């Protein structure tokens, strides 16, 4: 009798603990009453897992199908929620996609044209057959350690990147640890004047003249190659110096990055920049199209890639969504553009003349 009671107790407690385990596995949980944060995290996880599947099956392309558009708008929906940057499911989505992209950047051999990766926010990496160029590399959201990309991870990106161009001082673009690591590796860092002025790294950073009138040279000592660059004197608002870079790869392709360009007076040089320089790809902050497609008409690039979507430290109204790119950039075939999600890559092939 004693024995059977003991067996019964053991059985009951096993059942209870199995039940408890089922309850703690969020993927099998069947109701979320009383746990709003848990519910929203799980909803984000389910949504972003479908997003991942849809993006892999439908990579970036000039012609987007319905599944891809829905995946991008689903990202907007998950991320337009006040606490999005604190949700573990959102953090895992970014971390996994960026880890995957960095692995690809290190291993993918580029035979022709250029492969372009978009990482968090406005970080872009351009790899050509001879060089790998980084723009606005940073480690995530300053002050949110659980969102940040680890130093080990970003160092593995720096290890395979030859040069860093930083557009302006804001923390979603500029990261002095990243710049210092490039410089430790004897790789050039280019910024506007004044950024990190009080830090030891300042004397090692290059500050080419901000002018549309000159092609300047940046030497890559490890590669024994030169890059030709134009440092356009852009601004964010009236006062923030924002370098808009045109960077020529040794193969002669030209890649432009606008940082957070937004200043009407700069249209003076934007309107005519395409007369002087032939630009292959421009990576724009998504709100800098200027009414009437004036930015595209000025730069006349062969391809536009909008960036800076869903910066999670921005308030929701300025957390630029993918869906607004369809409104802003439209569908005029004379201004082709490609929409990219974080972690994706796009192979740019120079079109036949
Ligand atoms: Zn900014
Ligand atoms: Zn920004």
Key structural traits:
353 residues; six-stranded mixed beta sheet; 33% helix; Metallo-beta-lactamase, Chain A; binds zinc ion; alpha/beta; single chain; 12 strands
Overview of the structural elements:
By secondary structure, the chain is an alpha/beta fold. Helix content is 33%, strand content 19%. It has helices at 2-24, 36-57, 66-79, 88-107, 151-158, 176-184, 267-270, 273-276, 294-299, 322-329; strands at 114-118, 124-127, 132-135, 163-165, 189-190, 211-220, 225-236, 240-248, 254-257, 281-285, 303-307, 345-348. The longest helix has 23 residues, at 2-24. It binds zinc ion (2 copies).
Summarize the structure.
This protein has 353 residues and is α/β, with parallel strands linked by helices. It has helices spanning 2-24, 36-57, 66-79, 88-107, 151-158, 176-184, 267-270, 273-276, 294-299, 322-329, and strands at 114-118, 124-127, 132-135, 163-165, 189-190, 211-220, 225-236, 240-248, 254-257, 281-285, 303-307, 345-348.
